[in-house]
Amino acid sequence: MSQTSNPTLVLLGVNHNTAPIEIRERLAIPPSRLAEATRSLAQAPGIREGLILSTCNRVELLTLQEGTDAENPDLLRFLNEYFSVPAATIRPHLYEFREREAVRHLFRVASSLDSMVVGEPQILGQVKESYTIARDVGAISGSGTHTLDRLLQSAFTVAKKVRTETQIGSSSVSIASVAVDLARKIFGSLAGKHVLLVGAGKMSELAVRHLIAHGATSLLIANRTESRAQKIAAQFTHPGVSVEVIAFDDLNTQAHRADIIITSTGAASTGVDQQIFTRANGHQFVQRRRGRPIFFIDIAVPRDVDPRMNEVEGCFVYDIDDLQQVAQSNLSDRNREAAAAEQIIAREVDSYQHRLRSLDAVPAILALQTSAEQTRQAELARTAKALSGLTPEQSAAVDALTRSLTAKLLHPQLVALRKKPGE
């Protein structure tokens, strides 16, 4: 594949603002499949480099594509074929950004300005993980002027700058903390409440921290890999807090003990044919609880809890999209800091684009300087016989004079090549 022309930067995706969870969960890629999906994207015709960011709130394809016209690869077709989801189902929810706007979008995502919970710290780690995977599978190159490596490194620097120069992340906010806030609003107090965490990933760890901070003293943890659940239990067990690990296979016989169930496994993406908790399970739980209500906060994508469980009297189910309303209250307190962060990003996008243009100008500058020097040397050689009578000092003076004249004649052209458009 030719690498002589600059590629086109294209970002295509869906997120919590453009697509409901019913769409996002059909496009979600579990960590175990992200490397394979990224490799498939990078091997698609016309793709020079590629990266996939898949979180509970977004699925985005970031690509460098050969060419600049209608012959560019069809990323919608990739989504359609890879996920077996009809293009007509995906198309209404898609957004596409190119070149400068793609840079801006990536900087905003990495800085958590495009998150459901503005300022949450997890997204930068997720972008870095996607970057690492793309590097590992050879989907990102570290050489050249126009590379995703250069772009991603800039995004990480910008995100750090936003964190350092604003208070956007002044309080610990995450999807997990919003879920716990919802639980507090439901019950008024978490004191004496029994909470079951299904899934022992990072999100669950964050939820445990928030639950304990707000008075929960009885925690149940279940995970397919029980050693992982045991590790979290050991981490959080201390006087005043009871943490119990239950076998994943015993969920349906033990879940009724909990007042609040927080799930974050994304079971459907691991090859499980059905969700962990079904409508039938809901009937069983309420019966065993003698009518006492049970609340599910499902922060998994794909979802762990059948949304039809809401039809069961005494069962209340909230998924990640329901948390957005709670997140808005956090956003209102962060508008000023978000505005400051947007200004930083605007400046950094300008700076990044200028650096790219400067790098693009380097080959032209070198070629111009080389051509001028060759012409100078050729003219000196042509007049060498006529100048043969010069002393060494006079020859050096002629050489210096021709160098100075060449530099002065080149100067306006070199300035024009280095200059920003519009200057």
List the helices and strands and how they pair.
Layout: E1 8-15, H1 21-27, H2 31-43, E2 47-54, E3 58-65, H3 75-83, H4 87-90, E4 95-98, H5 100-110, H6 122-136, H7 148-165, H8 175-187, E5 194-198, H9 202-213, E6 218-222, H10 226-236, E7 242-245, H11 251-254, E8 260-263, H12 279-288, E9 294-298, E10 315-319, H13 323-333, H14 335-382, H15 392-418
Parallel strand pairs: 5-6, 5-8, 6-7, 8-9, 9-10
Antiparallel strand pairs: 1-3, 1-4, 2-3
Helix pairs in contact: 2-6, 5-7, 5-14, 6-7, 7-14, 8-9, 14-15
The domain count comes to: 2
The CATH architecture category of the largest domain equals 2-Layer Sandwich
Mass-distribution shape = elongated
- Regions with pLDDT < 50 over 5+ consecutive residues? none
Largest sheet: 6 strands, parallel
Using the coordinates above, name the CATH class of the largest domain.
Alpha Beta
Number of separate helices: 15
Kindly describe this structure.
With 423 residues, the protein is of the alpha/beta class. The protein has two domains: 8-164, Beta Polymerase, domain 2 (2-Layer Sandwich); 175-323, Rossmann fold, CATH 3.40.50. It contains 15 helices and ten strands. Strands 7-6-5-8-9-10 form a six-stranded parallel beta sheet, sandwiched between helices. Strand 8 (260-263), helix 12 and strand 9 (294-298) form a beta-alpha-beta unit. Helix 2 (31-43) crosses helix 6 (122-136), helix 5 (100-110) packs across helix 7 and helix 7 packs across helix 14 (335-382). The two termini are 36 Å apart.
